[in-house]
Design brief:
Layout (H helix, E strand, L loop, with lengths): L1 H31 L4 E17 L4 E16 L21 H29 L1 E4 L3 E4 L4 H5 L6 E5 L2 E2 L3 H13 L3 E8 L2 E8 L5 H7 L1 H5 L1 E3 L8 E4 L4 H5 L6 E5 L2 E2 L3 H9 L6 E7 L2 E7 L2 E4 L5 E4 L2 E3 L9 E4 L3 H27 L11 H13 L2 H19 L7 H14 L5 H30 L2
């Protein structure tokens, strides 16, 4: 229950920030164009909180359904306007002013993404170094000449410090169904290899994962099951385990590394185990009974109060992508552009039937991602906010009535023909747009539920 609440809070917090920033774009430019604001709402539906502020005493609202928001402006098409305020009505503004007001929301989404990625890159993202483990015989990676033990140091001339950076570099090329050059370090030798991604699709990646599909297993760094710390008064201490003991087996089952040992203990709360340890040159048998602990998801696990003994410096296993102020800003701009172009190409593939709509995620999946990223630290949460902000910016620019892009489409027609699109045409467009958006919402909810059900 606690984990669910954490995910829900992270989702509402993230969406609240993004919606507020998007709508503030409309609000800020509208005020610069001297349009009177009537209401600024974060969320839809029944108001949970409201207050009148500013010289115009517009209504600031927080509503019950946090899946969007809106800025209501003075407009003759929506009600009678006093003659003294006609010059402040939205519909009386020039085409350029109306275009700027509508465009401001998506633009502010991209600005937010740049800032989020900027701070993310200054904080730094830590991940496993991209050292290749196993390479599947006959796979795409095998045909490219990749072999076990090499480190991928660049994809398409862009440095890759972690596996995440490798995946980011490859995924765009998969959408383009092209080839990509990668630079690898094999001992002291650096060479360039070419990976052919022409036979892959985004759908393959959704089902199997990119690295698995091209035949790469990242190198794993196993930590031996050696006791590095024992907490006084807990089961490990009470059983006689001391620092330096190597766990050889438990109840006759061989223990290969620390992860296996932890899983074994967690699965056996309050169950007495006979474990074999190696202490120096001597092998001993001791009895150990894990205590039990309840997790946030209410599952019960065993624990003994012991920590592992690190055997490798962390810098040999992990790397951190971080930059100083100006380089981080440049990377933030690059990341925003890359993700915007990637999102647009993905949508294009879906519209043309070259990619499945199963790749779309809805509120449930976004809530899960929000919670997971929030638990992973500020850098991961900023990454999530940046990705979602880019998605909102791109989606709102699509030429679909009811979205900002739909209004911009009408303004483009108005610019060409010299007069506004007729009200009847706009009403038909709104009906079409509502139907499309309703169908999209049903689809993404279906995708979310299908994922939850496995």
């Amino acid at each position: 229950m606690m984990e669910f609440l954490q995910h829900l809070f992270a989702f509402i917090f993230a969406l609240g920030i993004l919606v507020t920033f998007h709508e503030f774009g409309h609000f800020w430019v509208a005020q610069k164009c001297d349009v009177k604001i009537l209401r600024f709402s974060v969320g839809f539906g029944k108001p949970l909180w409201s207050r009148r502020i500013g010289k115009d005493q517009f209504e600031l609202v927080v509503a019950a359904l946090p899946l969007g928001g809106y800025v209501k402006m003075l407009d003759e098409r929506e009600g009678k306007v006093a003659e003294s305020e006609l010059n402040r009505a939205f519909n009386r503004k020039t085409l350029a002013q109306r275009t700027a007001i509508v465009l401001a929301g998506p633009v502010f989404n991209f600005i937010f993404a740049i800032v989020a990625f900027w701070f993310m890159f200054m904080i730094g993202l830590t991940g496993l170094k991209p050292v290749v483990g196993e390479v599947e015989q006959g796979s795409i990676a095998y045909q490219a000449g990749l072999n076990e033990g090499v480190e991928i140091i660049a994809v398409d001339s862009r440095e890759t410090k972690t596996w995440t950076m490798v995946v980011d570099g490859l995924i765009g090329k998969i959408i383009d169904a092209g080839k990509v050059d990668i630079k690898v370090r094999d001992g002291s030798v650096v060479k360039v290899l070419t990976i052919n991604l022409e036979g892959l699709s985004i759908d393959d990646l959704a089902e199997q994962g990119l690295l698995n599909k091209i035949g790469i297993t990242p190198k794993t760094f196993k930590v031996p099951a050696i006791i590095g710390d024992v907490h006084s008064g807990l089961p490990a201490d009470q059983s006689g385990l001391i620092v330096g003991d190597l766990i050889v087996s438990a109840n006759g089952e061989e223990i290969g590394d620390w992860v296996q040992w932890v899983k074994y203990v967690q699965a056996r709360p309050k169950q007495t185990m006979s474990i074999e340890i190696k202490r120096g040159d001597e092998y001993l048998i001791i009895e150990l009974t894990p205590d039990e602990k309840t997790r946030d998801d209410e599952s019960v696990i065993g624990f003994i109060g012991a920590a592992n003994q690190p055997v490798q410096p962390l810098e040999e296993i992990f790397a951190k992508e971080s930059y100083s102020l100006i380089p981080a800003f440049i990377r933030g701009v690059e990341k925003t552009w890359d993700m915007s172009w990637l999102t647009l190409r993905m949508l294009g593939k879906m519209i043309t039937g070259q990619a499945s709509v199963k790749n779309l995620s809805g509120p449930i999946s976004i809530a899960q991602y929000a919670g997971d990223s929030a638990q992973s630290g500020p850098a991961a949460f900023l990454w999530f906010l940046g990705i979602v902000s880019v998605s909102l910016g791109v989606l709102n620019l699509l030429p679909v009535p009811l979205l900002d892009g739909g209004h911009l489409m009408y303004y483009a027609v108005e610019f060409i023909k010299g007069s506004e699109v007729s009200e009847s045409t706009q009403i038909i467009g709104q009906q079409i747009g509502f139907t499309l958006l309703l169908g999209l919402m049903i689809l993404v909810f279906y995708n979310d539920i299908a994922r939850l059900m496995g």
